[in-house]
Amino acid sequence: MPDRQLTRRKAIRYPLQTALALAAWGCVPAWAKGSEKPLPKVGSVLRLPDVPLLDGRVWRAADMRGKTLVVYWWASWCPFCAVQSPHIEALWRAQRANGLEVLALSIDKQADAASTYMKAKNYSFPAGMLTPQVAKSLAKPAGLPVVVVLKVNGQDGRTGKVVFAEGGEMFPEDIEGLKKYL
Predict the structure, then answer these.
(1) Which percentage of the chain shows pLDDT scores above 70?
(2) pTM for the full model?
């Protein structure tokens, strides 16, 4: 590839180089390898766990009742995530007052790597680690980044209906378009 920035368009154009680069970055935790699931189907229901966040707070599923939730699987070492995360941040900042929430789940091996990355980039969306406990409810679909949008209407706020699911880097206008699910 002519330059080092890897985008979806370049990944399509240079599939062999992309596959080799992603294999070399094999930073997926050992417990997560082979446990990736297909994208959840639109209309399916996911159960939401409480998630310890990187900043020490706890993300509470019960607080999501009646909201639209963007679940975002990412990693600090993922070049596609590096392109997509600023757009997730912008969407969250612009739409959270309208009922949009974000739960980002890092698959980094170490929480310090994810936390340091979040601070360096000045991201404020809620982010936790995809621990084995969290993965019981929110298993990571194949690929990175992954975005799943849920309408959370369960009586206890702990279940959400999938209204959108996408694996791979999304274009900025597609991320901005997620607000249509509010």
Answers:
(1) 80
(2) 0.81
Q: Tell me the C-alpha distance between 10 and 42, whole Å.
A: 28
pLDDT of 76 over the 60 cut: yes
Per-residue pLDDT at 37 = 81
Question: How many helices (DSSP H) and strands (DSSP E) are in the chain?
Answer: 6, 8
Residue from 18, 145, 22 nearest 83 by CA: 145
Q: What stretch of H or E contains 73?
A: strand 68-74
Its domain, for residue 170, covers 28-181
CATH number at residue 159: 3.40.30.10
DSSP annotation string for 24-57? HT--S-TTTTT--BPPPPTT-EEEPPPEEBTTS-
**Quick check: is 3 in a domain?**
no
pLDDT 10s digits, 10-68 = 555 554 455 445 444 444 444 345 457 889 999 999 999 999 999 999 999 999 999 99
Residue tagged 């739409």 (tokens): 95
Sole residue written with tokens 């070049």: 79
Distance CA 182, CA 68 (A): 6
What is the chain's alpha carbon radius of gyration, rounded to the nearest angstrom? 16
**Sign of torsion over alpha carbons 8, 107, 87, 148:** positive
2 lies in a domain? no
| Domain-located, residue 65 | yes
